[in-house]
Amino acid sequence: SHMLGVVGGRAKRDQTPLMVACYRGRVEAVQVLLAAGARLDARACDGATALHAAVHQGHVDVVALLVGGSW
Question: What is the structure's pLDDT at 2?
Answer without folding.
Answer: 37
